[in-house]
Amino acid sequence: MRRRTLAAALGLVGATGLAGGLAGCTVPAPRRGGPTADPAPGMPITSSRRAQLMQIMAHPDDDLYFMNPDCQRMVDAGVPLLCVYVTAGEHTGKNHVPGRTGETVADREDYSSARHQGLRQAYAEMIGLDKFTPWHKGVATLRGDRQAEINTLTHGNRRVELVFLNLPMHTPRRWMALPSLWEDRALGLRTVIATGSPVRRASDYDYDGLVDVLVGLMERYRPTVVHTLDPDPDIQHSDEATRKKDSEQPGYSDHGDHTAVACFSWAAMVRWVAEATADGGSIPGFVTTSFRGYYNRHWPKNLPEPVLREKAAHLVPYGGDPTWQCGNAAGCGDYMVGGTRPLTNKKGWVRSTHHRYPGPGPVVATGPDGRLSVYGVLGLRAVRWRETEPGSGQWTEPDDLGGGPLAPGLGGATLLDGRQLLFGLRFAALGGHGGANKREVVVLEQRSPGGPFLAWSGLGSPERDDDRGRRIGVPVAVTAPDGRVHLFVRDADKGVSTRVREADGTWGPWRGLGGAEVQDGLSAAVDGRGRVHLFAAGRERVHHWAQETPDGRVAFRADGAALPVPGGPVDVAGTPDGGLALYYRRPAAKELTAVRADGRPLPAPAFDGYGTVNAAGTPRGPVLLGRDLRGRVQLHVGGRRSVRAQGVVALGLATLHLGPKGAMAVGVGADAYPWSWASHTDTA
Prior knowledge:
The chain has about 675 residues and is of the alpha+beta class. It has a domain at about 50-350: Rossmann fold (3-Layer(aba) Sandwich). The strands form ten sheets. A seven-stranded mixed β-sheet has the order 3-4-5-2-1-10-11, sandwiched between helices. It has a four-stranded antiparallel β-sheet with strand order 12-13-14-15, with no helix packed on it. A four-stranded antiparallel β-sheet has the order 16-17-18-19. Strand 33 (about 635) and strand 34 (about 640-645) form a beta hairpin. The two termini are about 40 Å apart.
């Protein structure tokens, strides 16, 4: 097996980590490198066409707070679920009962057991059973002869497995155990045995041990979808009292355990791909979604009331009640979470679900022969699926385009001659114990329309150091009528930076665009006069950057119209008169907002739902793509709304494609394979 450091494998020279905290996931002490995958293209890819969801959390309840409703939609569709909880969730060992006076006795083993019971109650109800339904409890033997408790429950076509690794949350020397395990070469942790667990002996973990255990679980379950937490949370300078109250790490908008477990999860995915492809093996076919954590506290809330109530309802059985007869002597849930507390908590974590790498869906392009090509990220690498015949809706096996490890989602732009550009956010280095941690924007350019590609090229980062570079967002690009390609990314200051490719193929330098703080999920378009525009969701309004003339620079429109406050990313479409229209949902709203770029309101079609809306302008009016309140894909075409009711459950947002036969949605399913759907034929 090839064993190289991440920096060497990815061709980094002189890459250095940045000391100074968990959010950088680095300290200045080197560690042994693990195997890393070759980023060159052309490897075989495993494509089983079965679906399996794997979620990796720091604490019991991270999934319920941050990964729903995405998780629930897949469970409802019959996708088997494996949840891996890295810590015991024992904190101080005190399971406080609201309203009870007197000192709560600390018992770490009991508190861990009570939180496990709360999860069993929550997932039993999620799959349609009584919350006190007994689970099958067993012991899983993991890599390194380590042991973990595994709980299993099935109901019809629904299956949930919970794996409790039960590493401690704290250590006497460093307090925060998981961040220290990522950073400290000398640290080892011994697991907590929860009260009533079938596990009878504790297991020891170091850095490589935890990565290996996660890789072993991936190899055993072969997930097609992996949900993780956020490895690179936003820089957030809260005052010290607020930071401590909100349990955020110094300088960054998330809990330290969330970031450390996300880093371990990404390191494990990199190693899984490396092990699988060693000696000519196949790339495992999986897609990844990372979820924001305490970020939800700082931005407008994006879930409408019906979806919020559904999400929060799963935290009620998790929180439990001390009067319940649940059959678990150590406790019946995490008592500070149950009842109405998730909805009344001022931090508002439950009121939003944000992806770390939001995007408009896979890149879709039409080749010279009329066949569609779909570009996405599979096994942390760029891939291309092609239609077997024009308009067939059937797809070839994926072609590996290499370039990994890549964050989920690709940006795309089509050159004037029909060639495709693909943009990715690359984990150029990812290592604990002083290893380099670096993100960069990369580009893949097609040699000829519909043909092969050149080698990947690095476009660097708009940030001056690796720690700040960790905060950059998903690249978004648009081709102007003069042949220039404008590339945009959200930067570490939560603003926007750009880089421009000239018509002759040369790239200019990175340039900050100024303006206010925005969320990721940028939207770029060209108006009827050939001018490039960029829109992004701010805290109190939509922010706008644009060219004054087609040959000018894109600049912040400080005097722009006061566009209504958004709950999340916006999309933009052309209007018949050459203008631009924006489509999005306001905070906590199910209804659609439609407004011109100059602030004039537009008639908003009946298109209730949640999440981002994709839009395209046509002479007959806008075509819209999004999700309804039940999470199903919906299209609005010609004044008619249609819902996709067949086919494998969709992941994330699909892409809206206008072809010769009309509007079509193209996405990737829970089986890590493309699907397409046209409402006028109701095919899936």
